[in-house]
Amino acid sequence: MSKLVVVGTVAFDKIETPFGKTDKILGGAGTYIGLAAKKFGVDTAIVSVIGGDFPEEYINIFKERDINIDGLKMVEDGKTFFWSGKYHNDMNSRDTLDTQLNVLADFEPIVPAAYKDSKIVMLGNLHPLVQLSVIEQMDDPELVVLDTMNFWMDNALEDLKKVIAKVDVITINDEEARQLSGEYSLVKAAREIEKMGPKYVVIKKGEHGALLFHNNEMFFAPALPLEEVFDPTGAGDTFAGGFVGYIAKTEDTSFKNMKNAIIYGSNLASFCVEKFGTERMLNLTDQEIDERLKTFKELTQFKISLD
Amino acid sequence: MSKLVVVGTVAFDKIETPFGKTDKILGGAGTYIGLAAKKFGVDTAIVSVIGGDFPEEYINIFKERDINIDGLKMVEDGKTFFWSGKYHNDMNSRDTLDTQLNVLADFEPIVPAAYKDSKIVMLGNLHPLVQLSVIEQMDDPELVVLDTMNFWMDNALEDLKKVIAKVDVITINDEEARQLSGEYSLVKAAREIEKMGPKYVVIKKGEHGALLFHNNEMFFAPALPLEEVFDPTGAGDTFAGGFVGYIAKTEDTSFKNMKNAIIYGSNLASFCVEKFGTERMLNLTDQEIDERLKTFKELTQFKISLD
């Protein structure tokens, strides 16, 4: 079992979907990634920043699950990062209603000394220079995974390219892959992005699943078709957390094992969307994950023998 | 090996894509379905209608492949059905530039006597009453598969519901499934459509693959991610032709075997889009199909053993 360092926001989210709305609840990429990775029993540290308004109750969520928060800095006189969004009826698009960076504006990540030798690093969506700083603090990681967004392509492309050049895996959605590469075909887009540095490219297509590319190899995992998507918030981060968590647990960074990691990422993400925020992830049992793996097998596995 | 009856248009298409444009070329749902099904060596009859303008050269395409055309009626003084369309840059949407029904307007399908005992029937997209007439001419088919479009939902919904009530499998795209069922979730949509008659519902999502539903079972086949989609015309019909062709060849209408049929449908459709019109299907070899099956396995199959 490898140790895992996760950098990403720990935040307040206020969410509105056709099914209802929440008050300020626990959210953030670092939160979702950490909770998902911890499902594999991996020794996980979250590096992030919160304000004095962050409740003890949320801190205990990490503590109770034995997620290391030595790198979770509290700025007593600051306020926690806040995001508010409203999903459209199709759940595939959303409007950001409010973003308050607060303590995130001056965030300088510090990787705890005991985790500098972690073999797996997950860089959640943040300013590319913050992501870069985490890489530079690590001793000799085996696998660095980067998640990012179109916002940084629009506003910090040169910094983003610097960090992309230093990672092994990038996870990105289909539109972002097209924007970054200038190619419409996702096969061509992945090839262009591989030229920028990452040996592995994961393209997330939301309800249409996820693709993994490496040289001339390709793997695809569908999203589980659900009766109801209740709240998509955090699904992409939960996918990434499942992906790195499984790799850290198995200590196997081969393409073949990454296929399994992609399946586990999809598996966990399919739970995440069943309830608001982190609610479903907090109650999720190992048995439920195993049961859903069977569902994924039934959904995708077939037996054809050629004559 | 079961005999297969296919009803569907045999047509002229004029196609424009970002890669170029064609003159009037061979097209039509019946053509694509028949060519795909014949790849499995199935004894296949196409029931359709053409005008006196339909060239010998195209008729020979069917004859050379031993596709029965006793039910392909030629109206000497009529003109063949014509469709012209232009694809947008993303290849996912298209504008119809021209539709000339011509001889299709008065089409009354006649199933050849030697094929009335066929066990498998594929009803390509046509007026629901034409599709119904074919069902009524059959002795005792084991599996009737229906393809349809939103056009008939808008213009002949009651007739469409009559034929839907009589079929075993319906193939339909995602937007059409939502329109027909009034449900946004495809899981719920499939359940509603099953209540209308079909025991199996296939939802085609274009570049995002296809889903097969039956009671509480689900199966998903991705579309093969391609460097270039050259011309999507006929992909859905080729998918359907591969699906019924494989079932007719294997004489197995179980859900388990339908999974394989869905994979073969996706396999053939991935070739169809590589060239304009039927060009790629006409040159496709068995070896290429087998090779691509391996690609589909690599794309989707994984091995996870639980501790």
TrEMBL record, chains A, B:
Domain Carbohydrate kinase PfkB residues, every copy: 3-280
Keywords, ordered alphabetically: Kinase, Transferase
Segments forming a coiled coil: none
PROSITE patterns per UniProt: PFKB_KINASES_2
GO terms, molecular function: kinase activity
A Pfam family recorded for this sequence: PfkB
One GO CC term on file: cytosol
Record protein name field: Sugar or nucleoside kinase, ribokinase family
Organism: Mesonia phycicola
